[in-house]
Amino acid sequence: MSCGIALAVSLLLSDPNVALAAAQPPAAADAPVSVAGEPLFADIVARSTTLKALASAWRDSGEADQAGFLTSPVFNGFKNQAAELAALDLQGHLVLKERGLDGDLKCILRGISEDIPVKVAAFEGAPSPAERRVALDELLYLLDDNAAVITAPPQSEA
C-alpha cells in the first residue's frame, strides 16, 4: 500500500468530517468564488460593521440629535472613516474590474462608494431632527448593505 493511500485511509478513519467532505460533489470549475475572505474585502466588511454600530448607537441614544453633535470630534472622525470606507469600496470595485469580473458586486461596490459621501452629507445637512433621523436610517441601511453584499454567497451569472 502506498503512503498516500495509507494516509488517506487513516484520515478517513480518524475524522468523520473528512469523509463527509470527500462525499460532497466537487465544485464546478466555473462556480463563482467569494471574495469575503480576502483582506481588502474583509476590511470593508469590518469597517462598515463598525461604522454601522457607531451610528446605530447615536440613533438609539439620541446623541445624534444633541446640539453640537455635527461639529464634534466623534462625528468628524466618523466622516473621515466613512470617506476611507468609500475609497476602499471603490478600490474593491477596481480590483474586481481588473480581474475581468462582470458581476453585480463590482457595480454595487462602485455605487456604495459614491453613495456613502452623499448619505453622510444628507445626515449632516438635514434641517430638522426628523429629517436627520431619516438620513441616518438611510446611512445605516447603506452600511449594512455594504457588508451584506460582500458576505452573501456569490451567485452564478446567468
List the helices and strands and how they pair.
Layout: H1 3-14, H2 16-23, H3 39-61, H4 73-98, H5 104-125, H6 129-151
Helix pairs in contact: 1-2, 3-4, 3-6, 4-5, 5-6
Describe the structure.
The protein is mainly alpha-helical. The chain contains six helices and no strands. The chain has helices at residues 3-14, 16-23, 39-61, 73-98, 104-125, 129-151.
Unreliable residue stretches? 17-22
Shape: elongated
Largest beta sheet, briefly? Answer: none
Helical content class: over 70%
Radius of gyration using CA atoms only: 22 Å
Measured distance between first and last alpha carbons: 46 Å
Quick gist of this model?
The chain has 158 residues and is mainly α. The protein has helices spanning 3-14, 16-23, 39-61, 73-98, 104-125, 129-151.
What labels describe this entry?
single chain; 158 residues; 6 helices
